[in-house]
Amino acid sequence: MNVTDQAYYLVISGRWFSTKDLQGVWQFVPPDQLPPEFARIPENAPAGTVLASVPGTPQAQEASIAATVPRTARIARSASGSVTYEGDPKFSRIPGTSLSYALNTATPVVRISPSKYYAVIDGVWFKAVSPAGPWSIADKVPAAIYSIPPSCPIYYATSVYVYGSSPSYVTVGYTLGYLGAYPTSGGVVVYGTGYNYAPYIGTGWIAPPFTYGFGAGIACGLATGFAIGFTADHGWGYSPGWGGWGGSSYNSFNRNTFNTQNNYYNRWGNNNLSNGQQFQQEKQAFDQNHPQTASDMNRAEQNFQQAHPVEADRIHHQASEAAGLGNSELSPKQRQDFQDDSRGIEGDAGINRDSLTHDSSRLGNNDVFAGHDGNAYRSAANGGWQSHDGSGWHDTDSGFARGDVGRDLDSQRFARNVGGFRDAGSGGGGRTFGGGGFRGGGGFRR
User: Fold this and answer.
1) How far apart are CA 419 and CA 321, in angstroms?
2) 427: helix, strand or coil
3) What residue ranges do the domains of the chain occupy?
4) 442 pLDDT band (50/70/90 cuts)?
5) For residue 314, which of 256, 242, 388, 366 has the smallest C-alpha distance?
6) For residues 100 and 91, is the Cβ–Cβ distance under 8 A?
7) What is the pLDDT of residues 151-202, one digit of tens each?
8) Model pTM?
9) Burial of residue 111 (number of CB atoms within 10 Å: 0-12, 13-18, 19+)
């Protein structure tokens, strides 16, 4: 309730409504017309989860970024897919386009022409010369597909992309629109398009994508990152159904909550490059395409390694472990130190973004950072930075934090703190996520 005008506010699926009478009618409120006090709600407050739906807040900005950054993978060209129809394939014209889509299947199938078909199967585009297949992985997707409007039930398929290919693999990706979460011009993320899609009813029933409601709560907390929570206690995990939630791939997931960090591409198994393999290939491609930048980065890394061999070794092993490159070189002591660093903040009180941006106490020995100017910096106890030269560590001047290097280092420190914080909380560990889990707003209650 906004005390100033005695109006009540409700957020559903990331969209705001207001009324002055709880027994009356709720009216839609554009996000940019929310009371300015909403942005000052503390993240750890019981209502803190609404911040992801308040424009201009760090939580809303992070959610918008998370909704547009693709989850990617390299899928082997030998991967195959299949599409199941209820009876013979039936297609319907997509208004405003020259395309048609299949009605009687839970898989988004697009007809480009009588001999050209495309389908999205577990986040990967496939192509065929007939709706029955056989389906082979597509290394290109016609631009016309991305003209499919939100009013079409398979609109979510336009959030799946092909980024490149090699003789052996195709690089693919999807943004969270594939799961129904869309950034808006109002600066927030909403769940669902809001359109009223009709199910397919033949001898059987195929559910349309979820487009609204179902207790969908949007949150972006320090512990969880960006996630969507659901409350649907009447049991809605039906199959088949269009969309990331309703399709056969997700018909058995926990119906109370779903964290958007889960990766569709894990189900491709051996057809998908491991994180470590992908990391190595992407690094090699970057070095080839940006030789001068790569040379500068390598020189800065070498300078840091020479000046701080112990810290450099430690950071190298932690990064390798995080990237899935294997940790066989870590000693038991290093591995225990890494776990201790990650869990050291468990149970801390007063966690907020400012503390994670400026606090050094949780970093332990992992407090040395590489600046993009090629110099080594250490996180200082007072929240500032120290730079290193031949005579040792020295405090930076008062204007350093406001410069590009200082702001970038603050971002790195925040990310490193948050990484440890979320890692410590992801397994439960007895932590109560104040402002990080879902409470209210349709999210799930812990």
Assistant:
1) 13
2) coil
3) 72-174, 275-425
4) very low
5) 366
6) yes
7) 999 999 999 999 989 898 999 999 889 988 899 988 999 988 989 898 899 8
8) 0.63
9) buried
